[in-house]
């Protein structure tokens, strides 16, 4: 079985500043990794995913994440945030063989301040 | 309509009531899911259906009863719930490609009194 740990439950950040959200996972098999975002009063939507290939993955809205197998991490970054990036961000993992069965982390709430 | 639609968006029920949550997807997907989102807890996978067949029941109490009459519709029947069942219930769908992209509805906020 796999697990996901998001080390920060809340991250306050000023507008136009960079942000990094940390995610570590554990699994004994090959995995797929994901970041989802949940805006207030909405469901989750996919930001980006790593399946294979290049370890630097670019997603929507200027976000990117880097897969580090040796550190079992998949941290999410954005060089300059906007007010509209205020949301909760979830890291998720699935076994590569299991495809769509995702295990989610506890979420990181990002509050962008003007 | 497009995407994944959940109704009702808000539901308040007593512990002796029977109610149902409905989910409909217009994406042509083969798999549908129920997740529970509680405050301060990770999303919990409850049920998975592939081609209308239940393929996952994550040790969910029997007071939650899912139904999937076809690949586009998913229900969650609720009866004799407990206050700790109050949560946001999220429905999702995916294609059979196994690449992990789930499409979520906006959720049904359930309050059990």
Choose one word for the global shape of chain B: globular
Number of strands of chain B: 11
Q: Report low-confidence residues of chain B grouped into runs of 5 or more.
A: none
**Gyration radius from CA atoms of chain B, angstroms:** 13 Å
How much is the radius of gyration of chain A in Å?
13 Å
Strand content of chain B: over 45%
Reported for the largest beta sheet of chain B, the result is:
7 strands, mixed
The greatest interface between two protein chains, and residues involved on each side, is: A-B, 25 and 24 residues
Largest sheet of chain A: 6 strands, mixed
* Computed structural class of chain B: mainly beta
Overall structural class of chain A, as computed from helix and strand content, comes to: mainly beta
The low-confidence parts of chain A are: none
Calculate the terminal CA-CA distance of chain B, rounded to whole Å: 33 Å
- How many strand segments of chain A? 12
Mean pLDDT of chain B: 92
Average pLDDT rating of chain A: 93
H/E series of chain A? EEEEEEEEEEEE
Percent of residues in beta strands of chain A: over 45%
